[in-house]
Write a structure and sequence with these properties.
The strands form 5 sheets. Strands 1, 2, 7, 8, 9, 10, 18 and 19 form an 8-stranded mixed β-sheet that branches. Strands 5-4-13-14-15-12-16 form a 7-stranded mixed β-sheet. It has a 4-stranded mixed β-sheet with strand order 22-21-23-24, with helices on one face. The protein contains 16 helices and 24 strands. The protein is globular and about 75 Å long. With 557 residues, the protein is of the alpha+beta class. The two termini are 39 Å apart. The longest helix is centred in the middle third of the chain and has 25 residues, at 358-382.
Length: 557
């Protein structure tokens, strides 16, 4: 029997679990991660890392490494729509390649108020990178082939029972807190009796029900079809819809299509899967099927709660998305970032345990928001019915393709240029925010309105020295001072020192753009880059009261 003692036990080594391990490891919190698989994912899975996740990777210092992964740096990331790939192109939504990301995010700062643009990369490569970064943390241990069988909570912590799948030995891990990132079939959630609520796989012609993923190598797609390169290629005809996502820009793809009645992914042969690919292509080209998997689309499920006592849940264990909008794994990253600094502060005695109650009150409304946005995108693309004439030659076919192209072009703009979706989530019901009475900015997935109102992501600015404001932030707390009056800085510094918190003070009086965005003489930024407070000069007593709210002391029962 093996026994392990840690501050936090994490179940699940996917993006959510590994990101939390990194957040805790960077803060010196002893952590153990348990996962039943042999290692992290090797299949591509999700392929969109949104701007906010890229900002968090930048905060940890490795966004540039992520940016180099996936397709070649000069490969287009366009969305292209066709009747079949050998047929007619209907519409194309152009997006910048990876090599142009830094220039573009600066040029389009009025659209992307961000330090990073989204990046198109298989989730498997993200997981491999996160695992390498976690292993650099001396206080974190990751154990694969270790299956959790249950847990017991007591007054001092949580005891997790697990089994080593290689030796059959029992492994008991004790932690002060348990975090479940163990997926849609979460054993932890089921033991707690927490249920999902929401929409579950509503029927659509596409992106509604059982879907099929076909992994394949087809370099001939580039050499024989002669169509301009894209990141994702969609087909629209009356026989079968499909999308083909580029994995490496060299010939590896994943084709996704909806299973029809009588079709079974488990019984499907490679030859049958290849035939579906050729149906989407519209002609014979060389290819090799390398894998087949199935999954459910059209889901918008959120657990009824994200916490029970000392047990917290995140990622797919508490929210299941349809992939339209590409926010499932990205929402899980934000779950980890949110709980990470809070657990660390409580474990170190820098915050009251009541702070942890803010996790569910902040993240559950965001999960509800994000799953509903994704569902609307699924309706937009999945319920659209093209004209029967879309593949015909002559005036009727040309008119049908023009109508389809106009619709799909608008859809692509709304689904794939989504700064509001990825940057605009807010924590307006949180007890760990010093709220003010200013208006809440509009919440539109296609438009992000930066606001210094407490409860939202800190507005970004490119500074006079061309540096990113976010690169100036401290890893934990940051105070922005936009006034020549700096007494607030002294009072906040004294309040944080008394709590053992790390505070970085940035005097920004000469940065007019940043000052306008925050619309206050000073703003206090939480470790997750969320505005916790903004206002004018404060006394030491007021600074202490502000931190009482932000560290859970004011919320103590």
């Amino acid at each position: 029997m093996k026994r392990t003692i840690a501050d936090v036990v994490i179940v699940g080594a996917g993006p959510c679990g590994l990101m939390l391990a990194l957040e805790l490891g960077k803060r010196g919190v002893k952590t153990i991660v348990l996962d039943r698989e042999e290692g992290v994912a090797t299949a591509p899975q999700a392929n969109a890392t949104q701007a906010r996740s890229m900002e968090h990777y930048r905060r940890h210092g490795f966004a540039h490494e992520i940016r180099k992964l996936g397709m070649p740096g000069d490969h287009p990331t366009d969305l292209a729509y066709f009747t079949t790939y050998a047929g007619h192109e209907l519409a194309r939504h152009q997006m910048p390649c990876s090599d142009d990301a830094d220039r573009t995010v600066r040029e389009r700062a009025h659209i992307w108020n961000a330090a990073e643009l989204p990046h198109r990369v298989p989730q498997s490569l993200i997981e491999q990178t996160l695992l390498r970064k976690v292993k650099e943390c001396d206080c974190v241990e990751v154990l694969f082939e270790t299956e959790v069988t249950g847990f017991v909570e007591d007054d001092n912590g949580v005891v997790v029972d697990a089994k080593d799948l290689t030796s059959g030995d029992t492994h008991i891990a004790r932690g002060k807190y348990l975090f479940a990132a163990d997926g849609a079939q979460s054993r932890i959630r089921k033991q707690l009796g927490i249920r999902y609520g929401g929409a579950d796989a509503a029927h659509r012609d596409f992106m509604g029900g059982r879907m099929l993923s076909i992994y394949l190598d087809a370099p001939a797609f580039y050499t024989e079809l002669g169509i301009p390169r894209a990141w994702m290629y969609w087909t629209f005809n009356r026989r079968r819809r499909a999308l083909l996502a580029t994995i490496d820009g060299k010939g590896s793809f994943v084709l996704q299509t909806q299973l029809r009645e009588g079709e079974d992914a488990d019984k499907m042969s490679e030859e049958e899967a290849g035939a579906l690919f050729l149906q989407a292509v519209g002609r014979e080209i060389p290819h090799k099927v390398t894998g087949i998997a199935s999954w459910l689309a059209g889901r918008a499920l959120v657990a009824e709660k994200f916490q029970e006592g000392r047990v917290f849940l995140g990622g797919d264990a508490v929210h299941l998305f349809t992939p339209t909008g590409g926010m499932g794994y990205n929402t899980a990253i934000e779950d980890a970032v949110n709980i990470g600094w809070k657990l660390a502060a409580v474990i170190k005695g820098q915050a009251d345990p009541a702070l942890l109650d803010s996790y569910g009150s902040e993240r559950r409304p965001v999960a509800l928001r994000n799953t509903q946005f994704a569902l609307k995108f699924a309706d937009s693309v999945g319920l659209y019915v093209p004209s029967p004439a879309i593949e015909d030659e002559g005036p009727a076919g040309e008119a049908a393709r023009a109508r389809a192209g106009a619709y799909l072009g608008r859809h692509a703009q709304h689904e794939f240029t989504i700064p509001g979706f990825t940057l605009g989530a807010r924590y307006d019901g949180s007890p760990a925010i010093c709220h003010d009475r200013t208006p809440v900015p509009p919440d539109d997935p296609s438009v992000y309105v930066p606001s210094g109102k407490p409860g939202g992501r800190a507005p970004h600015a490119w500074l006079s020295d061309e540096a990113s404001l976010f690169d100036k932030f401290g890893f934990d707390w940051t105070l922005l001072v936009f006034s020549s009056e700096t007494s607030a800085a002294h009072h906040f510094a004294e309040a944080t020192e008394a709590r053992g918190l790390s505070l970085k003070v940035l005097i920004m009086a000469d940065e007019g753009v940043a000052c306008d965005l925050y619309d206050a003489p000073a703003a206090l930024i939480r470790p997750d880059q969320v505005v916790g407070w903004r206002g004018d000069c404060v006394t030491l007593e007021e600074a202490q009261s502000i931190f009482d709210v932000l560290t859970g002391v004011a919320g103590r029962a």
